[in-house]
Amino acid sequence: MIGGKSKGEGWTTADDEPVLRVIEWAKQYYPIDPRRVFLFGGSNGAAYVGRFGPEHQDQIAGVIAYCGGYRFDPKLFDAKDPAATKTEWYFVHGGNDNPQKSRRACDFLKERGYRYVFRQMDGYGHTDIWTGNGHPDRRDAEEVREDWLQWAAALRHKELPLSEAQQRELNRVREIVEGDGSIAAPFAGPAMRIGGPQTGDAILPAFRSNKPAFVIQAAGTCERVDCGAKAREALAAALLAEGASRPVGGRKSAGSIPAAAARPVRSRKPSGRMRSLS
Question: Which H/E stretch holds residue 69?
Fold first, then answer.
């Protein structure tokens, strides 16, 4: 994680070039996966990443924004099937801090087919929303932070190619999943590390396998990382089949899909003072 300071009192277009240089510098000198570059901003910073992110969707996997006001340029969101190809968004806004600003941004994205999450924290304002200071229990603020951290950990850029090392690892996953069973190595670990729709395509045959261990590994992979729409649909079908095959009141049999796999990555249940919209 790299924190920055604007050149002036607030973030403007004058900061774009330095931000791009920092991203390139970090990718050059640290073992950063280019498919996992995210932006975070709060208040004026949220407005900034709300403009910078759409302009650089070729590099940015996701944007997390707290308590911002957004002026999206419709031309930057004119994309075919953006849910499968473009940057995703996570908005957090206090209920006492004009949350309609973030809600309007979500409406804009929804109309254009983008994927987003919106967390409204009722009873919170512009600054306490981050720390929980002044509230008897800080768990709400902490749970929201944990939720978007999990969201970011699960997400990959949808169009950037895999590195050569990632492609070799994914080819190994395919060999295991599509093989005759002679390769007994588990594949969930490398599949989770790579993630994204490429991994989803690779593990699809596992959902149709007659090997329970393969189905469980594929389901576990989709629980931890976003593997694209096809994998999500395969997971839903496997869970429906699992439910239909289990007798009413019956116990889970050995090899069944774990209940946790039915829980999407970003479905943490909000407390009574939070609303979640996605």
Answer: none
**Residue in 71, 101, 112, 117 with CA at minimum distance from that of residue 265:** 117
Separation between Cα atoms, residue 248 and residue 243, nearest integer Å: 9
On whether the CB atoms of residues 86 and 55 are closer than 8 A, the answer is no
**38, two tokens:** 């995210």
Return the SS3 of 231. helix
For residue 230, give both structure tokens: 């096809």
DSSP class of residue 92 equals E
pLDDT value of residue 137: 86
Cα torsion 208, 212, 213, 219: sign? positive
Residue 92 has φ and ψ, to the nearest 5°, of -130, 135
Packed helices 212-224 and 229-245: angle between N→C axes, nearest 10 degrees? 130
> In degrees rounded to 5, what are phi and psi of residue 209?
-75, 150
Tens-place pLDDT, residues 205-258: 999 988 889 999 999 999 999 999 999 999 999 888 876 665 555 555 445 555
Tokens 């490429």 label which residue?
A: 198
DSSP 76: G
| DSSP line for 126-176 | SSHHHH-TTSS--HHHHHHHHHHHHHHHH---SSSPPPHHHHHHHHHHHHH
Q: Tally DSSP H helices, then E strands, for the chain.
A: 11, 5
